[in-house]
Amino acid sequence: MKKLMAFFVIFALMATAVLAGSVSRSMPSRIQPGQTLTVTLSISGATADKSFTLEDVIPAGLKIKEWTVTGAKESKEAISIREKGNNFGWSFTPTSSSANVEYKIDLPNNEATYTFGKIVWFDPSGQGTEASSPALTVATIRCGDAICEGSENSDNCVQDCPKPAAPAPAAQPEVAMEKKGLSTTTIAWIVVAIIVIVAAIGYFMWQKKKAE
User: Fold this and answer.
1) What distance in Å separates the CA atoms of residue 88 and residue 54, rounded to the nearest whole number?
2) Cβ-based neighbours of 164, under 8 Å, separated by 6 or more
3) Is residue 83 included in any domain, yes or no?
4) What average pLDDT does the chain have?
5) For 115-154, how does the pLDDT look when each residue is reduced to its tens digit (9 = 90+)?
6) Domain CATH code at residue 78
7) Please, what is the end-to-end C-alpha distance for the chain in angstroms?
8) How many angstroms separate the CA atoms of 124 and 45, rounded?
9) In what order do the strands lie in the sheet with 126-130?
10) Taken in order 124, 125, 131, 134, is the CA torsion positive or negative?
11) What is residue 125's three-state secondary structure?
């Protein structure tokens, strides 16, 4: 009986996770030091006109400088936010099944690698989690690091951005070469002409001999 109850509890938790919509994170994997990082959290499958709470884990040493929520019923000032340690959360009411949370972080001038934590969200249908931990590499663009990025191209950094192979020349259509020479008809007329000339000469010689 206990095993059966445990099964139903696990099934209920899985069901609520499915019903609680989904959230995905969009952000670059590489960026230069001192630039501003933009992270977008895309919400789908939310319950319209019902409270939705979303929480993201920011890497240690970074801090959100500004944020916006699109698709919320409330104004920005009326949206509840929660900041505790590296966790930053928003609570608002989506006007439809989809909404976006976008935040910006000013990155330090030094090179480093940061790992973001999991995303957790709640709505009346249950709880959901996005457990991926994407890494952000903050590094200066250098020619020769085998990564073609930023303003690099095959003209200013062929080491990172090799030029595409030249296309193979198009096959030339074969043109049938017309054999030059005399046609059969022409040759026949020449033969006839020679015969006539020979016959005329022979006739002339015969007449001359006869006259003597």
Assistant:
1) 8
2) 154
3) yes
4) 84
5) 999 999 999 888 999 988 999 999 998 898 888 887 889 8
6) 2.60.40.740
7) 148
8) 12
9) 80-84, 87-92, 52-57, 119-123, 126-130
10) negative
11) coil
Which residue type is seen at 167?
P
- Does the reported pTM lie above 0.85? no
**CA gap 40, 56 in Å, rounded:** 11
175 lies in a domain? no
Which pairs count as long-range contacts for 131-137, CB under 8 Å and 24+ apart, including other chains?
A: 132/25, 134/25, 134/27, 134/29, 135/29, 136/27, 136/28, 136/29, 136/30, 136/31, 136/37, 136/59, 137/29, 137/30, 137/31, 137/113
180, part of any domain: no
Strand order through the sheet with 22-26: 22-26, 36-44, 99-106, 64-70
Helices and strands (DSSP H and E) totals, the chain: 2, 12
- Domain housing 129: 2-138
Q: How far apart are CA 32 and CA 152, in angstroms?
A: 13
Token digits of residue 94: 């989506």
What's the CA angle centered on 59, arms 137 and 101, to 5 degrees? 95
The whole-angstrom separation of Cα 107 and Cα 138 is 8
Number of domains into which the chain is organized: 1
